[in-house]
Design brief:
mainly alpha; Arp2/3 complex 21 kDa subunit ARPC3; two-stranded antiparallel ribbon; globular
């Protein structure tokens, strides 16, 4: 591999990995609010989180499965650190000269059940997504790249939604609301998958990920 191509690959991995982690963090913060859209209850993180599945595939394509796994675990660790930091800051004594600042803790202090549910769902579903993606690459190679995204997301999206809704909401909300949130998540994530399918063609594939003689 020539040096300019290697440098370009490193930049691509850095960019898509950063976007993935940023989307994970933003989705976990916004998931604290439940919305009603088109008659469905859904956590607001659903507006951002679905894009992480295709972004993970871009990381996988540019960096390989080991890098993709590392980024998934890094994002989970960052989410846990963020929640812990919010919890700590909300409990440190405020400067009363600028007010009690109770709003910070009321808004951002984490609900640990939601944190646990989101991190478990993210790690499990994204690692499964990576395995399905890699199996597709091994069998089909460089052809039909959009199908590798569609296939992996078709497995990981419902798995993620089921894990998150079950761990976060069962026993806390009525089953009718939980089921509504599940289906809303699956539908929105499915639509997002279709919209984001072309993204897979925006980056070049890491040579080691390619199947020989499939160009």
């Amino acid at each position: 591999m020539k040096e300019p191509e290697r440098q370009s690959g490193i930049v691509s991995v850095a960019v898509v990995s950063s976007l993935y982690v940023a989307a994970q963090l933003l989705s976990n913060v916004t998931s604290l609010r439940i919305l009603m859209i088109a008659g469905f209850s859904m956590d607001a993180g659903t507006l951002i989180y679905p894009f992480t599945f295709t972004l993970r595939d871009l990381v996988h394509k540019t960096g390989g499965i080991k890098v993709a796994r590392a980024v998934v675990i890094t994002a989970a660790a960052a989410n846990l650190f963020m929640a812990g930091l919010y919890w700590l800051v909300a409990r440190l004594p405020p400067d009363l000269g600028v007010g009690s600042q109770l709003e910070f803790g009321q808004v951002l202090s984490p609900t640990w059940r939601l944190v646990f549910a989101s991190i478990v769902a993210q790690v499990v579903s994204e690692l499964v997504d990576g395995q399905v993606y890699q199996v597709w690459v091994n069998k089909v190679g460089h052809k039909l790249q959009w199908m590798r995204v569609l296939t992996s997301n078709s497995v990981s999206v419902p798995l993620d939604s089921a894990l998150f809704c079950g761990l976060a909401f069962i026993g806390r909300m009525s089953m009718l609301v939980v089921v509504s949130i599940f289906w809303a998540n699956v539908i929105v994530k499915g639509i997002t998958t279709l919209i984001s399918l072309p993204w897979i063609y925006l980056v070049k594939e890491k040579p080691e990920v390619r199947r020989p003689n499939t160009e």
